[in-house]
Amino acid sequence: MKRYLQHLLKDIRSAHRPENYFEKEKHSAKSDEDELKEHFAEVDRFLNLEAEPTFSNYCGLEKEIFPPSDYYGLDELQQVNFEFRQMLKSWNLGIDLPKNLPKERVYDLMLGILDHPVLISEYGFFHFDFCTGNPEGCELDEYCSCLE
Q1: Closest Cα to residue 110, out of 124, 126, 95, 99?
Q2: Is residue 93 domain-resident?
Q3: Which whole-number Å values give the CA distances from 97 to 9, 31, 141, 143, in the listed order?
Q4: What's the total number of domains in the chain?
Q5: Which of 19, 116, 144, 146 is most buried by a 10 A CB count?
Q6: Is 42 contained in some domain?
Q7: Per-residue pLDDT tens over the stretch 82-119
Q8: Would you put residue 135 in left (φ > 0), alpha (ψ -120 to 50) or beta?
Q9: Which domain holds residue 78?
Q10: What is the pLDDT of residue 61?
Q11: Looking at the record's lineage, which domain of life comes first (predicted)?
Q12: If you average pLDDT over every residue of the chain, what do you get?
């Protein structure tokens, strides 16, 4: 395994959400009403997503540290993709892609998430599927399910 790849995988693993990320004031018990207010505050943030920080601001990874997809062998690329997905899950983020999408495209789409505004939610998940429902301009190109 390439030395740089070892360091990159370590960086991705270090970028997982800290266990205590949501423990701001958990020392005092929250009422149901307080939890409901927090939930609706998250809904409001979701509706104004453009104002949210990019995922890179949360996880600390910059797109520039990732080499182009052709730097890796197929097994290495699969390993990076797997570790990146695990890191996304730790932040309550998900990615839904067609099974037949080439690993290089998966890699490129996942790296794009670093520059995307995201809502890190304590009460739910945020999913990326890269499909607008319109085949024109779709990031998934010929692999998009809206072409079926």
Answers
A1: 95
A2: yes
A3: 22, 39, 12, 9
A4: 1
A5: 144
A6: no
A7: 999 999 999 999 999 988 999 999 999 999 999 999 98
A8: alpha
A9: 55-148
A10: 98
A11: Bacteria
A12: 87
